Amino acid sequence: MSTIDRQCRVRAPIEVVWTLYASTDGLRALTPSVFGLRVESVRSPTGSSPDDLPVGSELTLSVRPLLVGPRIRVVTTITEREHRGSAAWFVDSISSWPFEQWEHHHLCYGDGASTIVRDRIDYRLTETMAWLDPFVRVMLAVGLRYRHWRTRRECSL
């Protein structure tokens, strides 16, 4: 299992950061364009607005890293989602090619007028794709750096 873990401080209250971080609009805004992300569909189990992303929501996404090669389609499921006072988080999980396992923990902790944002991704590539792990690690590290830079830019007061 490989893990990428990064955090940053955003000069904005948790409510501002969480509104951006925990939505499909936020996913689009916080993903580098070089990933070629498309949100193909969102299915909410509760019939609520798809952008609320309650537990059980399924997002069909496609990416085209570095904008070359075929699009890679994955379905991610929201497996946890909580917002309690000064802490909020959700977890999405993928179990389809090229990942044998994937859990992305999106965590926000209020700290007065600031918010600590932490992303932890635990993943395992399928056996046939394991040779791509160094490339995947670099892409994920770049993606999280961009995500945190963009979060600070969008939310900081």
CATH domain topology: Alpha-D-Glucose-1,6-Bisphosphate, Chain A, domain 4
Radius of gyration: 15 Å
Largest sheet features: 7 strands, antiparallel
What is the helix fraction of residues, given as a range? 10-25%
CATH architecture: 2-Layer Sandwich
The overall pLDDT average reads 91
Shape field: globular
- By DSSP (H or I, 4+ residues per run), the number of helices equals 3
* SSE order, one letter for each helix or strand: EHHEEEEEEH
Oligomer: single chain
Number of domains: 1
Report how far apart the termini are: 38 Å
Summing up helix and strand content along with how strands pair, one would put the structural category as alpha+beta
**Parts with pLDDT < 50 across at least 5 consecutive residues:** none
For CATH, the homologous superfamily is named as START domain
Topology:
Blueprint: E1 2-10, H1 14-21, H2 24-29, E2 38-43, E3 58-63, E4 72-84, E5 87-94, E6 99-111, E7 114-125, H3 133-155
Antiparallel strand pairs: 1-7, 2-3, 3-4, 4-5, 5-6, 6-7
Describe the structure.
The chain is built from three helices and seven strands. It is an alpha+beta fold. Strands 1-7-6-5-4-3-2 form a seven-stranded antiparallel β-sheet, covered by helices on one side. The longest helix has 23 residues.
